[in-house]
């Protein structure tokens, strides 16, 4: 089953999610929508699946930790600030060839890893992926790296 997935752990993002979900449902009503959130005040009228977000960090870690909690076999993950202007259901076609796809990130955040511009980072706010063991391991690795990176940034800030 294909579906669209949102993760929101802060009141501001819940508000954004309401607008984004309503917009996606208008443009792509054939797809179920799942929301992972720590809020009981979620936009239930357009949400087909609710995944409780437990022990929220209220930062990027929440997203990374719950990517794999999607109820769908093929998922289009969208950040809550993503506004579609047209249907993009053909994005799922790429999963016939690849297990995951994402556009380039609009910004680079490589302060702790020096990566050449020849390898742009993926945009973590628009990802289409297949739910399988490879993706489970990828998202687990991403979560471990992000946890490490956050500790590095926190330690660096404490010294400054």
What do these coordinates show?
This protein is of the alpha/beta class and 160 residues long. Helices cover 32% and strands 18% of the residues. It contains 3 helices and 6 strands. A 6-stranded mixed beta sheet has the order 3-2-1-4-6-5, with helices on both faces. Strand 1 (2-8), helix 1 (11-27) and strand 2 (33-37) form a beta-alpha-beta unit. Helix 2 runs antiparallel to helix 3 (133-159). The chain starts with a strand and ends with a helix.
Question: Summed up, what is this model?
Answer:
The chain has 160 residues and is an alpha/beta fold. It is built from 3 helices and 6 strands.
Which structural traits does this protein have?
six-stranded mixed sheet, 3 helices, single chain, globular, 18% strand, 160 residues, alpha/beta
**Spans of 5+ residues with little confidence (pLDDT < 50)?**
none
The helix content, as a percent range, equals 25-40%
> Helices and strands: which structural class?
alpha/beta
Helix and strand pattern = EHEEHEEEH
Mean pLDDT: 86
Distance between the termini: 49 Å
Using the CA coordinates, give the radius of gyration: 16 Å
Spatially, the strands of the biggest sheet line up as 3-2-1-4-6-5
Largest sheet: 6 strands, mixed
Number of strands: 6
Shape: globular
Strand content: 15-25%
Oligomer class: single chain
**Total count of helical runs of at least 4 residues:** 3
Task: Show the helix and strand layout.
Layout: E1 2-8, H1 11-27, E2 33-37, E3 49-52, H2 60-66, E4 74-78, E5 100-101, E6 126-130, H3 133-159
Parallel strand pairs: 1-2, 1-4, 2-3
Antiparallel strand pairs: 4-6, 5-6
Helix pairs in contact: 2-3
């Amino acid at each position: 089953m294909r579906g669209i997935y949102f993760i929101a752990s802060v009141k501001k993002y819940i508000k954004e999610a309401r607008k984004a979900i309503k917009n996606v449902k208008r443009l792509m009503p054939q797809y179920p929508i799942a929301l992972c959130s720590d809020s009981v005040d979620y936009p239930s009228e357009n949400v087909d699946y609710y995944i409780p977000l437990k022990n929220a960090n209220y930062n990027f870690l929440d997203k990374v930790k719950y990517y794999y909690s999607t109820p769908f076999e093929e998922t289009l993950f969208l950040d809550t600030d993503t506004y579609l202007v047209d249907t993009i259901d053909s994005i799922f076609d790429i999963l016939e060839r690849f297990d995951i796809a994402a556009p380039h990130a609009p910004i680079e955040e490589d302060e702790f890893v020096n990566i050449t511009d020849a390898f742009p980072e993926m945009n973590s706010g628009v990802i289409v992926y297949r739910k399988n063991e490879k993706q489970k391991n990828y998202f687990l690795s991403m979560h471990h790296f992000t946890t490490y990176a956050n500790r590095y940034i926190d330690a660096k800030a404490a010294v400054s």
